[in-house]
Write a structure and sequence with these properties.
about 180 residues, single chain
């Protein structure tokens, strides 16, 4: 009977040890699964944070760009009035409509450059507006070139209406200054 009791006790201890090992293996699997889930959640949270940070940056850049656009537009309005040009009738931003109207008119009638040259030469306010426009637009393009990592956006602005208008206004200003 003592042998039987010892045998039963050894069997119970072995089963308890075996159950404990199986329980520990199960807990280990759960811990690994929890670790994998937490790693996935952490990576997902980092991605969400980056997306939100990028959206905030884009929104902040758009707000700053809108301020610059309005500043440039304020310089263009008296210039357009002096050379008698109307903005495009499109649904674009008012700055792009104004620049488009100027560049469209210049493409149709190169005499617009002469009208602008005369306006710069005869009216100090127009000369000031053209100079301010050139400075602000150049600063904006330089800022875009330094902050745009892939260069696509800055190239779009440089090759688009903004770059074309800079060339047009700089040419008119140079002509006005040489004929003094």
């Amino acid at each position: 009977m003592t042998n039987t009791a010892i045998l039963i006790l050894v069997i119970i201890c072995t089963l308890a040890s075996l159950c404990s090992v199986l329980f520990i293996i199960g807990i280990n699997k759960n811990i690994k699964q929890i670790n994998k889930t937490l790693t996935y959640q952490y990576n997902l949270m980092v991605k969400i944070q980056n997306i939100l940070k990028n959206k905030f940056s884009v929104g902040e850049t758009a707000d700053k760009a809108e301020i610059i656009y309005q500043d440039l537009l304020q310089d263009l309005i008296p210039i357009m009035a002096a050379i008698d040009i109307m903005p495009r009738t499109t649904s674009e931003h008012p700055l792009w409509r104004a620049l488009g109207g100027i560049m469209d008119e210049y493409a149709k009638n190169p005499f617009v450059l002469e009208k602008l040259r005369r306006a710069i030469k005869l009216d100090s306010n127009i000369a000031h507006n053209v100079g301010h426009y050139l400075n602000r637009a150049n600063m904006f393009l330089q800022h875009m070139a330094t902050t745009d990592t892939d260069g696509i956006l800055s190239t779009t602005f440089t090759d688009g209406l903004l770059g074309q208008s800079l060339t047009f206004f700089a040419q008119a200003q140079a002509l006005a200054n040489t004929n003094k």
